[in-house]
């Protein structure tokens, strides 16, 4: 029969197993990394003197087009890792993820002085120093990619591009999906009111700063809906990819 010693060991083993299985953390995230049928992700550079790196999935020239930007700690590959590009492709959407311009390696950079602040992997561009320049850059990239009526997905710091673009070129957008973006404070409620673009405001329940700040401004967009992802922080698409994908697809599937 089992000695006390063996029984104690068994209990300890079970306890450790429970600890491990019950642990929250990256489990859910990894289970949503792409494991479905193969989708080819193409990568390329746009033309011109400030080329932008992008990843794209088929259908390449048909249907509703979705353009995904990224926040400061992320890049276009984030949307491949999460399976967002593959999922959109499977649902018949053309999806393009961009890498925004980065900061130049400049002698002032070590001092924390960035003349052309950038946060992406594409080549630095002087245009990024003004809101008008960033909107123009995005407009040119969409032209280069022959994207006509896109749904623009903009998390966090990519609001520096998406908000000026929205204000000046919203007639070029079929939909807008802000995810706690920056730069909403640069515009008045009246300016938001003139933008009729169907908008899905997405944010994580645990994001108490940027999400709330941007929501106060974005709710002046006349045709918006709001989805709050429970138990998710600022990068809510990373914390709750499944909920994020369901909300995004529901919005896309119901666009006129
Ligand atoms: C995807 O493609 C790779 C390489 O072509 C192959 O090894 C793998 O089995 C494929 N996976 C599926 C799910 O089709
Ligand atoms: C508002 O947006 C929805 C899609 O989210 C769309 O179906 C509807 O037609 C839009 N309404 C107006 C008045 O534009």
UniProtKB/TrEMBL annotation:
One of its GO terms (molecular function) is hydrolase activity. Keywords: Cytoplasm, Glycoprotein, Hydrolase, Membrane, Signal, Signal-anchor, Transmembrane, Transmembrane helix. It is a single-pass type II membrane protein. One of its GO terms (cellular component) is cytoplasm. It comes from the Eukaryota. It is found in: Cytoplasm; Membrane. The keyword Nucleotide-binding does not apply. Residues 1-24 form the signal peptide. InterPro entries: AB_hydrolase_fold. Belongs to the AB hydrolase superfamily. ABHD14 family. Possible role in granule neuron development. This is Protein ABHD14A. It comes from Jaculus jaculus (Lesser Egyptian jerboa). The gene is Abhd14a.
């Amino acid at each position: 029969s089992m000695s006390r010693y063996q029984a104690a060991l068994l209990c300890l083993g079970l306890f450790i197993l429970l600890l491990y299985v019950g642990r929250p953390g990256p489990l859910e995230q990894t289970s949503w990394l792409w494991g479905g049928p193969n989708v080819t992700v193409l990568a390329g550079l746009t033309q011109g003197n400030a080329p932008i790196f992008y990843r794209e999935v088929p259908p390449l020239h048909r249907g509703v087009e979705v353009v995904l930007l990224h926040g400061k700690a992320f890049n276009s590959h984030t949307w491949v890792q999460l399976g967002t590009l593959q999922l959109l492709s499977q649902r018949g959407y053309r999806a393009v993820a961009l890498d925004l311009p980065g900061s130049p390696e400049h002698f002032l950079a070590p001092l924390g002085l960035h003349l052309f602040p950038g946060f992406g992997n594409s080549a630095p561009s002087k245009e990024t120093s003004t809101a008008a320049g960033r909107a123009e850059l995005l407009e040119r990239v969409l032209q280069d990619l022959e994207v006509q009526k896109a749904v623009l997905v903009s998390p966090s710091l990519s609001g520096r591009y998406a908000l000026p673009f929205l204000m000046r070129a919203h007639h070029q957008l079929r939909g807008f999906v802000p995810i706690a973006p920056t730069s909403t404070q640069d515009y008045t409620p009246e300016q938001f009111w003139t933008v009729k673009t169907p908008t899905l405001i997405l944010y994580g329940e645990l994001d108490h700063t940027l999400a709330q700040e941007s929501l106060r401004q974005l709710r002046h967009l006349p045709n918006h809906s709001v989805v709050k992802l429970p138990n998710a922080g600022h990068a809510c698409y990373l914390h709750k990819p499944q909920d994020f994908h369901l909300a995004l697809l529901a919005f896309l599937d119901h666009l006129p």
